[in-house]
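Let us practice reading a record.
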Amino acid sequence: MKYTAYLFDFDYTLADSSAGIVLCFRIILERLHYTDITDDAIRRTIGMTLEEAFALLTGEQNADILSAWRQEYTREADQYMNINTHLFPDSLPTLEQLKVNGAKIGIVSTKYRRRITDFFKNKTAPDFIDLIIGGEDVCHAKPHPEGILTAIRRLEIEPSSLLYVGDSTIDARAAQAAGVDFAGVLTGTTSCEELKAYPHVRIMHSLNELLSL
């Protein structure tokens, strides 16, 4: 087996949380009287930090205002996010088989670690996922490589033995910056052509294709 560890993005890679994300953004945006922003525009921000997403959607650039909006979003997400998030059908079977094969499994996401941990409660054994690095665990969000490099250190693995899996060009850029292999999955809003513009070992239609690498 070439790879002894696999790191995954969360949103649109392991799970579809778009309904929860759109709902939480919609609540905040309508509260702020931004009523002409489409659900599709919101979906295309998935993978960005909340500040980046709000800035792109509204044009607001004031860091203090964007931070305040992030806090409002977080309060709504505590209520609405995980109940509106669902694993893709092949996510858990694929992770389980990788574990059977002896691989370490981790998640590196801009989503809060506590939210991911809570989402996986009662879905997997407590120690099934070896490592989760969320947005609160790094100073620099993807595409900065900090999250992936931190995972490499904590898992005590060589970069050459790791595959990072994600759905967006943000993920591809993070893997490239960290010097690790990347596999793209077409379960998000990013096209095959967009992902192919970056170094990759495979562009997949679903996660179970990892098992044939």
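A brief commentary: The chain has a mean pLDDT of 96.
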